[in-house]
Specification:
234 residues; 2 domains; 11 helices; 0% strand
């Protein structure tokens, strides 16, 4: 077969580069970025706009999850509670625990989590000089802990056939919140290795509360009082 000597050019087409898919900004991304920011700069961001720009997100990304920095700060404490409950429930034996054991598990796990984030927690609580401002960011945590305690005492009351043996959910839940504030202050001031004194305070305070509700308070209260006196005078 004869050839003409001509070569046929092959036409090539360029493929346009794919656009990079923007990473979806999650609630946890924003929380992590905020906690890192305040620890590195030792002050809160000046505006959502500047904060978002510095972390490669838009204001819309931020407002999709939080209405303000105040709501973000409060939600960090809510997250501490949620994570504590998630970890507690991963224990296969948790549902068979007594209420006392469930409360001990809660506080041990909660303060282990706070210890992992100690620098932020100390900053968050020391930053707010006004007591009401401090309580504002803890408002959601207070609601969660009171509900947790109320659920515990409700389950106990349901097992009692005599109404005289039932316990007040309101008093018990409020007591659990006051106990949380006491332990939080104790933990903040604790300089013992591994925060072992906080662990002791958790054990003694929880046992005291339950002993009070079981109408055998004297020895427990006395023991707890000695512990507090020793720590105050040390």
């Amino acid at each position: 077969m004869a050839t003409t000597g001509k070569t046929t050019a092959t036409k090539t087409t360029k493929t346009a580069p794919k656009k990079a898919v923007k990473k979806e900004i999650t609630r946890n991304d924003i929380i992590t970025a905020y906690m890192d920011y305040v620890l590195e700069h030792e002050h809160t961001p000046k505006s959502v706009y500047k904060f978002a720009k510095q972390h490669d997100m838009s204001e819309q990304d931020f407002y999709a999850h939080f209405g303000s920095f105040d709501s973000l700060r409060a939600d960090i404490w809510n997250t501490f509670f949620t994570m504590t409950m998630d970890v507690s429930h991963k224990n296969e034996d948790y549902h068979s625990f007594s209420n006392r054991e469930k409360m001990l598990t809660f506080f041990y796990t909660f303060f282990e989590l706070l210890t992992l984030n100690r620098s932020y927690v100390l900053y968050a609580l020391h930053e707010q000089k006004n007591a009401m401002s401090k309580m504002s960011q803890l408002k959601g945590l207070r609601r969660h802990i009171k509900q947790f305690a109320a659920d515990l005492i409700q389950s106990r009351n349901e097992s009692k056939t005599n109404i005289l043996l039932e316990r007040s959910e309101t008093i018990y839940s409020e007591g659990a919140w006051i106990q949380t504030l006491f332990l939080l202050k104790f933990w903040m001031d604790d300089d013992s290795a591994g925060f072992e004194k906080t662990d002791m305070a958790i054990e003694k305070s929880v046992n005291t509360i339950f002993d009070v509700f079981d109408n055998t308070p004297l020895d427990a209260v006395f023991d707890f009082g000695k512990f507090l006196w020793k720590e105050r005078m040390a």
